[in-house]
């Protein structure tokens, strides 16, 4: 429960600076620490699906101006 909460907080605090892709990768990485049953490949696939769905819904579908990548 703590790992999922920390993941959501990290996502909320990092999406503006890191962009959508890296913030979701951070979210899924921290969230995966909640259980030992998840394998790294499963976590990576879940992260990629979440990135693709978030991009298609929020950026393409709704037209929100969320940064995709960080601005270096």
Ordered list of secondary-structure elements with their pairings:
Elements: H1 2-32, H2 40-61
Helix pairs in contact: 1-2
List keywords for this structure.
mainly alpha, 2 helices
Describe the structure.
This protein is mainly α and 72 residues long. It has one domain (2-61). The protein contains two helices and no strands. The radius of gyration is 12 Å and the shape is globular. The mean pLDDT is 92.
Mean pLDDT: 92
List the uncertain runs: none
> What fraction of residues sit in β-strands?
under 5%
Radius of gyration (Å): 12 Å
User: Could you spell the SSE succession in H and E letters?
Assistant: HH
Number of domains: 1
Concise summary:
The chain is 74% helix and 0% strand. By secondary structure, it is an all-alpha fold.
């Amino acid at each position: 429960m703590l790992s999922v909460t920390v993941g959501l907080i990290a996502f909320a605090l990092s999406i503006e600076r890191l962009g959508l892709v890296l913030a979701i990768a951070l979210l899924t990485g921290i969230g995966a620490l909640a259980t030992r049953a998840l394998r790294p490949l499963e976590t990576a696939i879940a992260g990629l699906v979440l990135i693709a769905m978030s991009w298609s819904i929020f950026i393409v579908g709704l037209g929100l101006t969320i940064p995709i990548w960080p601005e270096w």
